[in-house]
Amino acid sequence: MKRLSDVLPREFMGVEYTDTPARKYADIVVVAEHHSHIRRWIGPQRYVMTWYVLANGKAVGWNENPSRGWSFPVIKFEE
Description:
With about 80 residues, this protein is mainly beta. Helices cover about 5% and strands about 35% of the residues. The chain has one domain (about 5-75). The protein is globular, with a radius of gyration of 12 Å.
């Protein structure tokens, strides 16, 4: 079973992302992986190309905004 820290880029666990809300879910198991060209991200961010559903009912996106850099938004996942 993979955890969130296993599927996001190595930089996610670095000092740059220490304060991101997603960081507290780093050890939570990933139950599904989605790619936005198949299943669109369910949050408002425009540049999420890959996102993950966690065992705790949250979804974490990998937002690759070309003007602001990476962010990792967290939302409650509902089918």
